[in-house]
Task: inverse folding
């Protein structure tokens, strides 16, 4: 969940950037600065300054939540996350953060973020009080090219209306006796058997995600997208890639157009 705060004046940002660039050029001209390192330092300073300015203009906060410990203005945390994604080991990254506490707060480009790892907190947000945690304009903007105004990218009355239309199709009784589900269960067991026989590590989350999307599309549209097939189809590969791009856009907050 992110708290939106008032923006910093564009003219003020422009003036600060201009002054920093002038200082950078002067140091490079005198041979006292490396261009690459200067640019990195400029980015870090601007990032920190924007965060501080936006925080001061934000609304008053309630009870303090433990702050996520980091170095170099969150660069170490961001690097660890990028590496974890590249290695396919995001769970290890999350476990590392959760050692600091099950509820943490941090700031990313001037936006206050609350990280919730406590299962009861996640249940409260996603199940018990979902309406009180809207996705917000940044999420809508990032996912609109992919999901439009569908239920996964809607808030408020629009979300309630679409949920009411979709809910009857996801009752347990609707799935009983669905023949295609048995076929996909057999595929899952086949994948598990092959992985066990080969001594391979099984990515259970990925496997069940693919099973879920196959059963859902098969039931709703009469034909699944074959996400369980190996190798993956072009559609599934494109679907996964699009999700990743949207994920990166939402992490960039106001700067996703970059």
Result:
């Amino acid at each position: 969940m992110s708290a939106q705060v008032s923006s910093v004046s564009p003219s003020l940002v422009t003036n600060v950037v201009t002054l920093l660039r002038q200082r950078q050029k002067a140091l490079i001209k005198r041979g006292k600065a490396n261009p690459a390192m200067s640019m990195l330092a400029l980015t870090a300073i601007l990032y920190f300054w924007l965060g501080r300015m936006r925080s001061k203009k934000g609304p008053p906060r309630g009870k303090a939540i433990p702050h996520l410990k980091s170095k170099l203005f969150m660069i170490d945390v961001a690097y660890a996350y990028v590496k974890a994604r590249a290695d396919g080991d995001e769970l290890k990254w999350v476990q590392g953060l959760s050692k600091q506490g099950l509820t943490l707060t941090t700031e990313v480009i001037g936006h206050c973020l609350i990280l919730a790892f406590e299962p009861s907190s996640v249940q409260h947000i996603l199940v018990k009080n979902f309406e009180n945690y809207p996705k917000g304009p940044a999420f809508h903007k990032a996912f609109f090219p992919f999901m439009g105004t569908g239920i996964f990218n809607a808030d408020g009355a629009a979300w309630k209306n679409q949920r009411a239309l979709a809910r009857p199709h996801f009752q347990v009784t609707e799935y009983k006796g669905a023949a295609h589900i048995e076929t996909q269960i057999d595929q899952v067991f086949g994948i598990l058997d092959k992985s066990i026989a080969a001594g391979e590590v099984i990515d259970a989350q990925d496997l069940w995600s693919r099973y879920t999307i196959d059963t859902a599309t098969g039931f709703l549209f009469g034909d699944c997208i074959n996400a369980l097939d190996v190798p993956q189809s072009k559609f599934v590969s494109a679907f996964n890639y699009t999700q990743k791009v949207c994920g990166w856009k939402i992490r960039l907050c106001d700067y996703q157009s970059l």
User: Anything to note?
Assistant: Residues 35-57 form the longest helix (23 residues). Strands lie at 2-3, 103-108, 111-116. Residues 6-60 form one domain.
